[in-house]
Design goal:
The complex is a heterodimer of chains A (about 110) and B (about 375). Chain A is about 35% helix and about 30% strand. Chain A is α+β, with helices and mostly antiparallel strands and about 110 residues long. Chain A has one domain: SH3 type barrels (Roll). The C terminus of chain A is likely disordered. Chain B is α/β, with parallel strands linked by helices. Chain B has a domain of about 260 residues: Rossmann fold (3-Layer(aba) Sandwich), CATH 3.40.50. In chain B, about 35% of the residues lie in helices and about 15% in strands. A five-stranded parallel β-sheet of chain B has the order 2-1-7-8-9. Chain B has a four-stranded parallel β-sheet with strand order 4-3-5-6, sandwiched between helices. In chain B, strands 10-13 form a two-stranded antiparallel sheet. The C terminus of chain B is likely disordered. Classes of the chains: A alpha+beta (about 110), B alpha/beta (about 375). Chains A and B meet through strand 5, helix 1 and helix 2 of A and helix 2, strand 4, helix 6, helix 7 and helix 9 of B.
């Protein structure tokens, strides 16, 4: 439950209640930025993601550290499964199909 | 200590462990509670106990949301799954948690519509995609997770979505710490404060622990070095006879917390007068409910839930373990009737539960020598 996953913001979508395309170890999903209204991130920033929402901005160094700690804790697979499972956050091109499959697999 | 070569600054880790041994008064027994379940997992996974002096005991706290949820609430949630109109959506962590008549996964096997979601936003999406069904999201978690549920409810309201509701089981960490300090059978010298909860609430809410209770607390990161440094900071305070809130996890935790997130929580949630915690009993103002302005999306108002209080299986001693009175292996069921494969109590389900952590890292690997001393 405490899982916080680091990701890099690739593109902002300000029109749809502030979401962003975020890259987590090569997997791209749409993540909600609604909890960072006071400290709005821009493309290129790193964020910590929890249950599909960016919780805080972090430095690139801390993001890499966080990914390493998830790996050491043996939670990296669960983290990637979580990111892949974000149904809201499909990649614009063809991602929808992927996330539907993901959801079927896990339900 | 395990995985030593992969750690950041292994030499610094060795020096920090040395510093702990130097600071710890051999004539004193230290009981330090790590509040957060993520820390419990890290402490076991990395074998931190191996580098700590024997008179420094880490007591595992209540910060595992799945573990502290009483069985009655799980039954209440599952009673909604029995309604054929309902899609029951919950995080994967919930799926194996036993209710009186089985876990959500077992309900699913019996044909009920139980789905794993990874985000409350996905539960909302499920409602949008299934307009002829009622989607009920079983919300659990501390302040790390509650703001995401709050934003999702604000979106549901903005969309005027009528087939979405939240069964709110969000709890708050501060009253749980208070309950532990008030409990006569738990004696704690200092606290390792939670990392990601504090990203949201900041450091101020902990000040009473230092000022009124005279106990040091250090907000900590999750790396072995973070945890060891936090213990050094606590021992320094204890040695000086000080008690203050310190932030070892400054790189992620701002002193003031996340104001957007706190704002969303304040708009959507109100405090319940009291809430039952497994093991800790009823704690006043320790959990969140939906405000009247969100009553339409409140599953407890939309559906009738039994609301029956269910006691834990008699032989299970989850409560004592949660309070730190018993160690996991001292429970009569540990490793016999209750294992991660067949959990009787919730502490054996989640990787953040102290029983599962103890079982996976101590019990299973018993006899395997660990690395650094």
């Amino acid at each position: 439950m405490c899982l916080a996953i680091p990701g890099k913001i690739i593109e902002l979508f300000p029109e749809s209640h502030r979401t962003a395309l975020v890259d987590v170890s090569g997997v791209r999903r749409r993540v909600d930025l609604g909890l960072l209204e006071e400290d709005k991130p821009v493309a290129g920033d790193w964020v910590l993601i929890h249950v599909g929402f960016a919780l805080s901005k972090i430095s690139e160094e801390d993001a890499l550290d966080q990914m390493r700690i998830l790996r050491l804790l043996g939670e990296d697979k669960a983290a990637m499964e979580e990111v892949k499972g974000y149904g809201l956050g499909e990649e614009p091109e063809g991602g929808k199909q992927k996330s539907e499959t993901g959801r079927k697999r896990t339900t | 200590m395990r995985f030593v070569d992969e750690f950041r600054d292994p030499e610094v880790i060795g020096r920090t462990a040395e510093e702990i041994r130097r600071l710890a008064d051999p004539g004193r027994h230290y009981r330090i509670m790590e509040v957060c379940g993520g820390h419990t997992h890290a402490i076991y996974r990395f074998g931190l106990k191996d580098v700590l002096p024997p008179n420094l005991e880490l007591v595992h706290g209540p910060g595992c949301p799945v573990c502290v949820l009483p069985m009655g609430r799980i039954d209440d949630g599952l009673s909604m799954a029995e309604n054929p109109e309902v899609i029951f959506a919950a995080f994967g962590d919930m799926m194996r948690v036993p209710g009186t008549k089985g876990s959500p996964l077992e309900y699913k096997a019996r044909g009920m519509d139980v789905r794993i979601v990874y985000s409350p936003a996905d539960a909302l999406k499920l409602a949008e995609n299934n307009p002829d069904r009622q989607v009920m999201f079983f919300a659990i978690g501390f302040e790390t997770t509650a703001p995401s549920t709050a934003l999702t409810l604000m979106r549901a309201k903005a969309l005027g979505l009528r087939n979405f509701s939240v069964f709110c089981n969000h709890v708050t960490i501060i009253p749980a710490i208070r309950a532990i300090l008030d409990s006569p059978d738990t004696r704690i010298d200092a606290f390792i404060g939670p990392g990601h909860v504090s990203t949201i609430i900041g450091c101020r809410p902990y000040e009473w622990i230092a000022k009124d209770e005279g106990k040091p607390i250090v907000i900590s990161g999750f790396e072995p070095l973070d945890l060891l440094q936090s213990i050094v900071m606590l021992l320094h305070q204890l040695k000086q006879g000080e008690a203050k809130v310190e932030n070892q996890y400054k790189r992620v935790v701002p002193w003031e917390g996340n104001r957007s997130a706190l704002g969303a929580m304040a708009e959507v949630f109100a405090l319940r007068p009291y809430f039952e915690w497994r093991g800790l009993g009823f704690i006043s103002q320790s959990a969140l409910r939906l405000r009247e302005t969100f009553a339409q999306w409140d599953a407890e108002q939309r559906f009738s839930v039994p609301g029956v209080r269910v006691t834990d299986p008699k032989a299970a001693q989850c409560g004592e373990v949660l309070k730190g009175v018993l160690k996991p292996a001292q429970c009569k069921l540990f490793g016999g009737e209750c294992t991660p494969e067949h959990p009787v109590g919730a502490l054996m389900v989640s990787s953040e539960g102290s029983c599962a952590a103890h079982y996976n890292y101590e019990h299973r690997k018993n006899g395997v020598a660990s690395g650094l001393g």
